[in-house]
Amino acid sequence: MSKKKTFIIAGLILLAAAALVVVVFLTEPTAQRESATRETAMLVDVITVERGNYRPVIMTTGTVEPVREISLSPRVSGEIVRRAGVFDPGQSVRAGTLLLKVDDADYQNTYALRKGDLEEARANLTIEKGRQDVARRDFEQSQLTLSDERKALVLREPQLKTAEAAVMAAESALDQAALDLQRTSVVAPFDALILERNVDVGSLVSPGQDLGRLVGTENYWVVAAVPQSMLRWLVFSGDGSVANGAEVKIFNSSAWGPEGYRTGVLQKMVGELEESTRLVKVLISEPDPLGITESREYLPELLIGSFVEVEIEGREIEDVVRLSRDYLRNQNTVWVMHDGKLKIRKVDVELTDAGNAYIKRGLEDGDQVVTTNLATVVEDAPLRVEEETD
What we know:
The protein is an alpha+beta fold. It has helices at about 5-25, 35-40, 105-140, 150-155, 155-180, 255; strands spanning about 40-45, 45-50, 50-55, 55-65, 70, 80-85, 90-95, 100, 185, 190-195, 205, 210-215, 220-225, 245-250, 260-275, 280-285, 305-315, 315-325, 335-340, 340-345, 350, 355-360, 370, 385. It folds into four domains: about 5-30; about 40-55 and about 320-385, conserved putative lor/sdh protein from methanococcus maripaludis s2 fold, CATH 2.40.420; about 60-65 and about 215-315, Beta Barrel (Elongation Factor Tu (Ef-tu), domain 3); about 105-180.
């Protein structure tokens, strides 16, 4: 083949290739902007929020303490001659229940002697009144004129006062003997749980000696601690227009299980801060902590010294959005989906409790809050939600 033919064939091939390239470029599909945007929009989940009135729940911990606690002591001395069977640790007793009996023989004798002294004093008073009547008649018959002091002596007024004073002293002595005799019976001063017993039959006791330790069973306190910032949301018993304080749920999951709880009342605030935490101590009243009252339903018992969790219902917050704390982002911001785009809203948080944030400003009814955690957060970034299918 000649060189001329070779050049002609090569030229034709080049022309054909060029024509093919032109055809390919002319028939290339055009990219649509709308579909590209849709493909790059981030898929998110959203919730619709609404404003309303809500009560926050303040969670904290506390310890169980008795409202009443005493060391039982005798008021007279002597030997213990009787101990009631209920006077043992762990026993519950009613007010007035006999716990111990001190030997009362000496006190019986003293009472009898004081009773005799009173009878004698009353007899002497009666005799002295008779003598005074005789002296008055004699004075009236004598028709003497005397000063008031001499007249009082003649009429035996000092002797009468002495006899009357002796009767009063004898009555007081008899009353004291009766009290001492009564005090030989040591009784429970209130409905109580016996925690300790330190004496038994045969023990010699004296006033002020520690016989045992008792705590009242009508009420226990749960001493909890809350931040100072929470105080304005707490409702204490007798606070303003309410007769009872806020309702409190008390949990002890290790002893009662995850579902077991008791309810109490927020009673009062202790006027001091804990040194280490700078939290405010509050007292929660828990009635019938041992479930002794028969009319009450069964409730788990509270044990003194127990460590418990408490949930305090706070004062109602008006016109706010309640949002899970998980959806409150850095620097009090919230991600909102608006017109398919991401909006980063700065919000004013009125209060946060254990689970929620209560937002005063920054969100309105119907706003769609993004609940998905995004790796890239850019204002106006395109968003989309998964379309529901029938």
